[in-house]
Amino acid sequence: MNLRILFCMVFYLGIVLKSQAQYAFKTEVSGKGPALLLIPGYSCSGDVWKETVAILSANYECHVLTLAGYAGQPAIDTPVLKTVKGDIIRYVKDKKLNKPILVGHSLGAFMSIWVASEAPGLFGKIVCVDGVPFISALGRPQITVDSVKKNPAFNPELVIRNFQNLPDKGFVDQTAMAMRWQVQDTARARQIAIWQYNSDRKTLATTLLEMSTTDLRAALKKIPQPVLVMGSIYQTKEQSERWLKQQYEQTPDLVIKVADSKHFIMYDQPNWFITELTAFLNK
């Protein structure tokens, strides 16, 4: 066979295989049963769900994602989250998953809402763990995407430059200290800081911008399936419930539960978390 023709065939095959198999996230699959997609939060590895999967994999096939650019995964071109959204939908179709349940923490909850509102017939129940459809308006329902974009602090070039200029020295220590506002355990805080240190700095910047300037509140009405929202304490339990109801106001089938916890509920209140989660899944 002519070498040029052979090369073209191999090159074409490589493109086809890449297009069929490559997604904007790494996936680890374990367990047997109905499919369940677990999406971690900002900068985190899918290992954030390790203890959760250890329990759920007895009854569910758990597909655990780690998004591109996070926790050591190769970065992709922007817009990252929009690409991830499309790839999650494509992944479910490619794998022929039957209405997989979505479980997302923080940014992962935002992504769960986004994919479910775009392809509502493709997914089953949704669990949003301390995540909202429009983070910029949390506690400030009058905020709009336009008002966020007009804020000089959200200038994309400035945000990206600030992230890229963060020094490596002291990064983990300082981030771990800051993470104590989001998780009780110091070892957990340090692990989250290490995941963030191993994340692509531009991805950290652009995904923060993407989430902060994407309002999914109106899209909630497109989601017919049951949605469980697990919230942490924002000053008081009453305030948490009020803010979450504002955010999820247009959700047709909604349950809100608030834990006595910081942001990483599955770490701070593991027994409460798994009890509420399994009860919702078993309904």
TrEMBL record:
<dbReference type="InterPro" id="IPR050266">
    <property type="entry name" value="AB_hydrolase_sf"/>
</dbReference>
<feature type="domain" description="AB hydrolase-1">
    <location>
        <begin position="36"/>
        <end position="273"/>
    </location>
</feature>
<keyword id="KW-0378">Hydrolase</keyword>
<protein>
    <submittedName>
        <fullName>Alpha/beta hydrolase</fullName>
    </submittedName>
</protein>
<dbReference type="Pfam" id="PF12697">
    <property type="entry name" value="Abhydrolase_6"/>
</dbReference>
<dbReference type="GO" id="GO:0016787">
    <property type="term" value="F:hydrolase activity"/>
</dbReference>
<dbReference type="InterPro" id="IPR029058">
    <property type="entry name" value="AB_hydrolase_fold"/>
</dbReference>
<dbReference type="InterPro" id="IPR000073">
    <property type="entry name" value="AB_hydrolase_1"/>
</dbReference>
